[in-house]
Design brief:
The protein has about 220 residues and is mainly alpha-helical. It contains 7 helices and 5 strands. It has helices at about 20-40, 55-65, 70-80, 105-135, 140-145, 190-195, 200-205, and strands at about 1-5, 15, 50-55, 80-85, 95-100. Keywords: Repeat, RNA-binding.
Length: about 220
């Protein structure tokens, strides 16, 4: 169990990383919650003590599920109230969202198990599909694309109140989409499309994204 005391010195909250088996992580998380609740009673701290879990944005869409079904089910099954920090708070340096669970020690601990089960599942699926894609596109250098930081060999995500996890790479969300406009020299378009559109089709499939090229407004645009 690592308490990140030095990072964000002076901040009201410190994150705690728990590294263990899923069962060990959940047991430690529950113990920490119990200690925090006891401490709150001792010092007569009246505010509610939620459990906060930090999760990489790549996994959050699947945790929420279509129309929020997965999250609602976890809330109902564990009798907790769960909220997730908005997308707007994400930055390049902090790709994590905060999952806040409100309830008593028992219900929060139960919710942590369910949330982390879902996140681990997403993580494992992404690793599997990443390995599959490496075989499907021979000669594709994943590192050169910059999609997979050198941390992709990290152990699966961990959790705690709150926890941090190391993302394997920026996977594309299923439920939240955005459009990005890239401007490139007209001369480079052919290289991106490739012979009979093969290159752009592979990129589309690989990224799980739809890529469209706008017609050039002028020959040198």
């Amino acid at each position: 169990i690592d308490v990140h005391r030095k990072e964000n010195a002076g901040a009201a909250e410190k994150s705690i990383t728990i590294l263990s088996t899923p069962e060990g992580t959940s047991a430690a998380c529950k113990s920490i919650l119990e200690i925090m609740h006891k401490e709150a009673q001792d010092i007569k701290f009246t505010e509610e003590i939620p459990l906060k879990i930090l999760a990489h944005n790549n996994f959050v869409g699947r945790l929420i599920g279509k129309e929020g079904r997965n999250l609602k089910k976890i809330e109902q099954d564990t009798d907790t109230k769960i909220t997730i920090s908005p997308l707007q708070e994400l930055t390049l340096y902090n790709p994590e969202r905060t999952i806040t669970v409100k309830g008593n020690v028992e219900t929060c601990a139960k919710a942590e198990e369910e949330i982390m089960k879902k996140i681990r599942e997403s993580y494992e699926n992404d690793i599997a599909s990443m390995n599959l894609q490496a075989h499907l596109i021979p000669g594709l250098n994943l590192n050169a694309l910059g999609l997979f930081p050198p941390t992709s060999g990290m152990p699966p995500p961990t959790s705690g109140p709150p926890s941090t996890m190391t993302p394997p790479y920026p996977q594309f969300e299923q439920s939240e989409t955005e459009t990005v406009h890239l401007f490139i020299p007209a001369l480079s378009v052919g290289a991106i499309i490739g012979k009979q559109g093969q290159h752009i089709k592979q990129l589309s499939r690989f990224a799980g994204a739809s890529i469209k090229i706008a017609p050039a407004e002028a020959p040198d645009a």
